[in-house]
């Protein structure tokens, strides 16, 4: 039982950046926009958060800066796809490439720079409880924020009038516009929220998960987050469960190798989460009825108020 707590803590840490990014992308896609630039926004958030953390020593300010950077990159995406009606798939891919290059440029002077990890919560008497104490009362602020925001997204989408409007925009933007809702503004706010969440996911990587900066340190997590939204069939609760499932897969290959249970090259084990992503997407794609039931009907389609 004593060895269980470190494993669970590692899974939570691996799942948190995925949860941030996937929840943000879920809201974006519910509005009818497909943003494939999650990886680039995560990297932008990671490098800016790390730079601010090094220069100021303030972890929460650094996390906020990471979210702001993700939002700024998302705003560029929104200008292209909502204002200039650019292709969403091509623009999202371009945003990822731009984020990769920009983060490498901004962070080149900070490679190898040490940074203390975000402080963990400590509640006297509760954090000291064996096994459960460190899990529930020994995380850093961003872990708790990811859970709170996940609950807030679920409530917003299915328990609030604003969430109903957002979903209606994703289903039929022309009808929503006809009855007076500002479709472009709603989609812009959704895209900005998704960018902020992706930036927070990247900030968690550079401030807490591995408090350092390295080029391309997201290692494909942005793409896994995109797959998680489909895996969860656009439902917040399943996104939460899926993030922890894929976080567990990320850690499983490391533990299996360290315990000597399997003896294959580490490169093959490192492919495990991505192979699992492909397998899951192939299996889910066979259930076309469920995808049609939950996927926003207008996702990826260009809308113009005058069109």
Automatic annotation (TrEMBL):
<keyword id="KW-1003">Cell membrane</keyword>
<feature type="transmembrane region" description="Helical">
    <location>
        <begin position="188"/>
        <end position="207"/>
    </location>
</feature>
<keyword id="KW-0472">Membrane</keyword>
<keyword id="KW-0812">Transmembrane</keyword>
<protein>
    <submittedName>
        <fullName>ABC transporter permease</fullName>
    </submittedName>
</protein>
<dbReference type="GO" id="GO:0022857">
    <property type="term" value="F:transmembrane transporter activity"/>
</dbReference>
<feature type="transmembrane region" description="Helical">
    <location>
        <begin position="213"/>
        <end position="232"/>
    </location>
</feature>
<feature type="transmembrane region" description="Helical">
    <location>
        <begin position="92"/>
        <end position="111"/>
    </location>
</feature>
<feature type="transmembrane region" description="Helical">
    <location>
        <begin position="268"/>
        <end position="284"/>
    </location>
</feature>
<dbReference type="InterPro" id="IPR001851">
    <property type="entry name" value="ABC_transp_permease"/>
</dbReference>
<keyword id="KW-1133">Transmembrane helix</keyword>
<dbReference type="Pfam" id="PF02653">
    <property type="entry name" value="BPD_transp_2"/>
</dbReference>
<feature type="transmembrane region" description="Helical">
    <location>
        <begin position="6"/>
        <end position="26"/>
    </location>
</feature>
<feature type="transmembrane region" description="Helical">
    <location>
        <begin position="60"/>
        <end position="85"/>
    </location>
</feature>
<dbReference type="GO" id="GO:0005886">
    <property type="term" value="C:plasma membrane"/>
</dbReference>
<feature type="transmembrane region" description="Helical">
    <location>
        <begin position="239"/>
        <end position="256"/>
    </location>
</feature>
<feature type="transmembrane region" description="Helical">
    <location>
        <begin position="33"/>
        <end position="54"/>
    </location>
</feature>
<feature type="transmembrane region" description="Helical">
    <location>
        <begin position="131"/>
        <end position="158"/>
    </location>
</feature>
